[in-house]
Amino acid sequence: MRDLLLSLDLESYPGIATILNRADGYRQMENMLLNYAATNQISLSAAVNQLEMELS
C-alpha cells in the first residue's frame, strides 16, 4: 500500500497530497483507501482515482 502511495505523482493528486502531508497522513490515507476500495468493491488504484475526485 505504501508503495502505491509513494509512486503517485502528488501534483496530479492534490487532495490526496494534502492528507499525506499531515503528521499521520500515510496511515490515514491507507485506511481511507482500503475502506473505500472495500466499500465500493474496486481496486486500490481505482480507489485512488475515485477518492481524489471526492477530495478535490
List the secondary-structure elements in sequence, H or E.
Answer: HHHH
The end-to-end span amounts to 21 Å
Q: Biggest β-sheet, characterized?
A: none
Number of strand segments: 0
**Cα gyration radius (Å):** 10 Å
How much helicity do the residues have? over 70%
> Low-confidence runs (pLDDT<50, min 5 residues)?
none
Principal-axes geometry comes out as: globular
Multimeric status of the protein: single chain
Number of helices, where a helix is a run of at least 4 consecutive DSSP H or I residues: 4
**What is the mean pLDDT?**
92
How large is the share of residues in beta strands? under 5%
Structural class: mainly alpha
Which key features would you list for this structure?
56 residues, mainly alpha, globular
Task: Describe the secondary-structure layout.
Elements: H1 2-7, H2 14-20, H3 25-40, H4 44-55
Helix pairs in contact: 2-3, 3-4
Report what the structure shows.
The chain has helices at residues 2-7, 14-20, 25-40, 44-55. The chain is mostly helical and 56 residues long. Helix 2 (14-20) packs across helix 3 (25-40) and helix 3 (25-40) packs across helix 4.
Outline of this structure?
Helix content is about 75%, strand content about 0%.
